[in-house]
Sequence to fold (235 residues):
Amino acid sequence: MNLAFSERPYSGATYRPRPEIYLDSDGKTLIVATPWGARDGARKVIDRMNDYLALAREDVEATSPFEKVSCLSLSANRLRIATLLANESLYREENKTEYRSGVELFAGILEEDEFVWLQVGNPQILLGRQNRKPLPLGSQIDLSFDFSEGDHLLPGLPSQMLGLDSSINLTLNSFRARAGDRLALVSHSHLPDSVFSLESAKLSVDQLARLISSSSPNHAFWVGVLQLGQAEEKA
Fold:
């Protein structure tokens, strides 16, 4: 299955940084790194992850300071270790003495029929599958949601980021991918109910942007949609 990705930022009246995006069609890898603070932190995370992923593809016995986890697949272990190395590098080079840059992260790898994804902070992750409503895979509670009162939503503020500590709390999981599956990635503190009623075919950047902007027009957000291959047409 091939990968296709589209994305769009929405500025609103508040601030949310636009992510750095890396898509490797041959390696079937997507990395979305959202910088808070110095923007070059996101590029450093992507570069450090790619260095390890490229090495691990060439040498299955490639070593690292982090051990493999027996309950995870080969791809999941590679993605986890790449993220841990990126976190260590960002912490050591940018934030050990004072905070300069934190990075929210989504990363995914498609290996045969397994799609492995990893998340630290936003974006929120929804799986769209043919004849199904969107399924939340990764819902994050950020500080904006945590400290907002009533209907008033505070400007976006992350609670989980790479680089702020020598260790990192990450979310890692996988699913059996089908041709036509779509992953909607949304950097927003609270998604409107209307998003969860969309048909898979309408889970697009344009449709998501319209629904979210009409629900909270003053809040900046970012939307991306990753398509895994093409759905089979019924005769």
In short: Strands lie at 3-10, 20-24, 29-37, 101-111, 114-120, 124-128, 135-138, 171-176, 181-187, 221-228. Residues 14 and 150 are 18 Å apart (CA to CA). The longest helix spans residues 74-95.
